[in-house]
């Protein structure tokens, strides 16, 4: 569980987060929405320990992460997976190298372990077939083709799936998505939404998603937090957002021309 208590963050004289209180239970999909510059990314960076709050606490599984020693913080971060906007794959690395880089940096060198984890996560995101369905020989053939592809060989949707696969390495408890459907066409966006929803259900993983895509919110979220001028303006179930009469919520929905019916 993630608990955010009275979180404040400023940069110089600019107040970005103003006393955020938010609890994200285990196993849910939580979308964080709000206009550009409202503090969404800053909030996530405080949660994962990339930024230090001016005041307040971030408690993950009972640990105040900003009181941890560096080694302890790295241990907590092993529970996190992160899917970056635009996927952020390394252009000079193959699909396989992009996927296993996190394990490699943790000191894992056994080729069997690295390959087993790579094939597990690439199967989970639908880039490899289930070996039980197609047979081992066909699976290994598909794996040999995929593993050596470069990011430039992949479609936008495939790159996003590789980014998600990389985030799943090591079986994290929490996965953070930064604008996962930005720049994708509607069909690919829907495929990514379906992938996020299926992984959350199949792996019982806690998903935290920064997004402007209200269609995605309605489709996949259990809960929604709306930030406005550094404050937590709305926090509740997605159905409550859809039927809210709050002027700021309605303005946000209208601004992004989203029909939530």
Task: Give a structural overview.
With 261 residues, the protein is of the alpha/beta class. It folds into two domains: 1-79 and 172-261, P-loop containing nucleotide triphosphate hydrolases (Rossmann fold), CATH 3.40.50; 87-171, P-loop containing nucleotide triphosphate hydrolases (Rossmann fold). The protein is built from eleven helices and ten strands. The chain has a six-stranded mixed beta sheet with strand order 6-7-8-3-9-10, sandwiched between helices. Strands 2-1-4-5 form a four-stranded antiparallel beta sheet, with helices on one face. A hairpin with a 2-residue loop joins strand 1 and strand 2. The longest helix has 18 residues, at 186-203. It is globular, with a radius of gyration of 19 Å. The two termini are 31 Å apart. The model has no long low-confidence stretch (mean pLDDT 92).
Can you summarize this structure?
This protein has 261 residues and is α/β, with parallel strands linked by helices. 42% of the residues lie in helices and 23% in strands. The two termini are 31 Å apart.
- Helix share, percent: 40-55%
Rg on CA atoms, Å:
19 Å
Biggest sheet record: 6 strands, mixed
What is the number of independent domains? 2
CATH class of the largest domain: Alpha Beta
Number of helices: 11
Q: What is the string of SSEs from the N terminus onward? A: EEEHEEHEHHHHHEHEHEEHH
Report strand %: 15-25%
In the predicted model, the low-confidence regions spanning at least 5 consecutive residues are none
> What's the CATH superfamily of the largest domain, by name?
P-loop containing nucleotide triphosphate hydrolases
CATH topology of the largest domain: Rossmann fold
Strand-pairing-aware structural class: alpha/beta
Average pLDDT metric: 92
- The N- to C-terminal Cα distance equals 31 Å
Oligomer: single chain
What is the approximate shape? globular
Any guess at the CATH architecture of the largest domain?
3-Layer(aba) Sandwich
Strands side by side in the biggest sheet: 6-7-8-3-9-10
Q: Please provide the count of β strands.
A: 10
């Amino acid at each position: 569980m993630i608990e955010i208590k009275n979180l404040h963050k400023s940069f110089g004289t600019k107040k970005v987060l103003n006393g955020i209180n938010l609890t994200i239970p285990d196993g849910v999909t939580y979308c964080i929405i709000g206009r550009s510059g409202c503090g969404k990314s800053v909030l996530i960076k405080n949660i994962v320990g990339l930024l230090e709050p001016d005041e307040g606490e971030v408690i993950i599984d009972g640990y105040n992460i900003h009181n941890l020693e560096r080694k302890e913080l790295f241990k907590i971060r092993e529970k996190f997976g992160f899917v970056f906007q635009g996927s952020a794959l390394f252009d000079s690395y193959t699909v396989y190298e992009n996927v296993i880089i996190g394990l490699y940096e943790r000191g894992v060198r056994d080729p069997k372990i690295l390959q087993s984890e790579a094939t597990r996560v690439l199967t989970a995101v639908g880039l490899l077939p289930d070996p039980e369905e197609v047979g081992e020989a066909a699976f290994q053939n598909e794996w040999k083709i995929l593993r050596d592809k470069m990011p430039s060989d992949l479609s936008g949707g495939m790159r996003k799936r590789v980014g998600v696969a990389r985030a799943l390495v090591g079986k994290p408890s929490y996965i953070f998505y930064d604008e996962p459907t930005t720049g994708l066409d509607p069909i690919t966006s829907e495929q990514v939404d379906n992938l996020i929803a299926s992984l959350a259900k199949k792996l019982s993983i806690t998903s935290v998603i920064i997004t402007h895509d209200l269609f995605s919110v309605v489709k996949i979220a259990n809960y929604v937090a709306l930030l406005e001028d550094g404050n937590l303006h709305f926090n509740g179930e997605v159905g409550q957002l859809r039927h809210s009469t709050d002027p700021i919520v309605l303005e946000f929905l209208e601004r992004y021309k989203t029909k939530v019916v």
